[in-house]
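#struct-help
A.M.: can someone run this one for me? Single chain, 192 residues.
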Amino acid sequence: TTAGPLSGNTVNDCDWGMWVHDGAEAGDIVSNEVTNCATVGAGVCDEALVGDVTGNTFSSCPYGFGVAGDARAQSISRNTVSHNTVGISVCLSQADSIRDNMISDTTERGITVGGNAVVADVTDNVTTNCGWSGVQVCDGAVVERVTANTITGTGYGVVVERSARVDHLNRNSVSQAPWQAFWIRAAVGELA
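D.P.: on it. Structure tokens below:
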């Protein structure tokens, strides 16, 4: 199934906000406002494919935006994500980039890449007051670059877990992280 862009929608008080799954292909997910969803604001899963996810607002959901189950999003950029459990999550899937997002007031993590996911770069994001970590790479995930993110008010700034890999971890700014700015427990290439 192929669909055009999901654009300009307002979704409030639903279980699942916007969900592309079961091998569906959709265009870009652009300029939507999704709030108060019980499970996820918006997501892509089960071998589905979407273009760019940009200019959206995801608020007050357990997951703001997620990619899971061998799905793919080209880029996740310029979204405003707030008051969720996890802001942006890519797990068991792919995304070309996660960049220029504003993520705040999550109870657990701002950005999570895990479960053997592959992401080219996590760059130029701003995470503020995001519970456990601003950026977390875990569970066999591979990220080429975690670069130029600004992380404030999280327990850990950047976490790289044991089975994950980050090739370039540089130019990030971490402040007000009471536990550690960088908690590196896995392979990291360039630290600059």
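A.M.: thanks! The chain has a mean pLDDT of 94.
D.P.: also worth noting: The chain is about 0% helix and 60% strand.
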